[in-house]
Amino acid sequence: MTPLKNDKILLRALEPEDLELLYKWENDSSIWNSGNTMSPYSRYVLKKYISESHLNIYDLKQLRLMVELRETGQTVGITDIYDFDAHHRKAGVGILLDPEYQRSGMATEAIKLLMDYAFSFLKIHQLYAYVAVTNEPSKALFLRCGFTVSGTLSDWISTESGFTDVLVLQRFSPQ
Hints:
Aminopeptidase
């Protein structure tokens, strides 16, 4: 298989046609605590983001790829490499799957493809993820993909019920 696809899914670059999906997902305030979003994004800002997404990961320090079902061509999620550090060969990784496709194995497929790409093509030494201790599905996803818990950041994110801890999970290149 090629680095960004398998028999079930394809990780692809953003397209102008993704604007409405990005708008929907980025403005879903129920998931803002999983990232660093504090306010809604306008269509204008997202359109500009899509138009600049062709720039090199070395310039942007991030890479966003859409998760698409190969059988139907339907876009079901987003995966990210962020805080890319070429010198230390490390980056953060994140994923968002449309609720309709959660618990379907698609997130595992997407993270594994992203890891293969990051380790083999980008020559990244380590990937890491920050996961709230209360986010059991994400914790299970990253553990299933071979990440290990390397630490806990106390009171790291603010939630409606106060502060909560965040796990730091790491996965190192097999080479």
